[in-house]
Amino acid sequence: MSRRPFIAGNWKMHKGPAEADALAEVLKRALTGQGSVDVAVAPPFLSVPAVVARLKHSGVHVAAQNLHWEQQGAFTGEISGEMLRQAGVTYCIVGHSERRALFGDTDAVVEKKVHACFRAGLLPIVCVGETLDERESGQAEAVVRRQLAAALGKLTADQLPSVTLAYEPVWAIGTGRTASPAQAQEMHATIREWLAERYPPFVPRGMRILYGGSVKGSNAAGLLSQPDIDGALVGGAALVSEDFLAIVAAAR
User: Is residue 1 part of a domain?
Assistant: First the structure.
């Protein structure tokens, strides 16, 4: 089964509505009509409406960076999946390492957010990955398997093709350090093996696994050439149109 490449740009807490609209306009001009790579961008919540409007009919999807697990309620400062869907969002990032490390998103919280995505009709991009201490102590594989079990354990085989996984070694996010293509491929293969141990063959064959961690135009081709790496979750390079477009080009 051929897996279609997927490049997603996480803008994090950058670019208010005007700046976001300007970047989306550049991406729209460059990417409208290209049919070989799935592309999404995840602006901050405040900029979502501007980016959705700008990218309409371009083929570039809009993702959210996070969501709350409830549909509504007394949760000051939070956004529900249903609200995001109404705003035109297609994907939602769940379990990003910054959410886990800085905002207390435990494995149990990530699980609830995955199910909230399904309830709202959003496609989850579920992030997993180990810290430097966990890698150096030989726990990397165990950590990733634990995170996978928590996030996906209660999903059916028929639901899993709607999930995109993103392996993001925490030690490579925003540090300038990148897992070598061989290191990244090794963990991606481990993730696919984990899926194969638990689900029918169509699941590990069809699920896309992205790599995230200081992906740039200069290293994208080497990473994306690996057999189990199906795309990239891009951070800093997603904020510069030339850099992001170079990564999309490398995925073709």
Answer: no
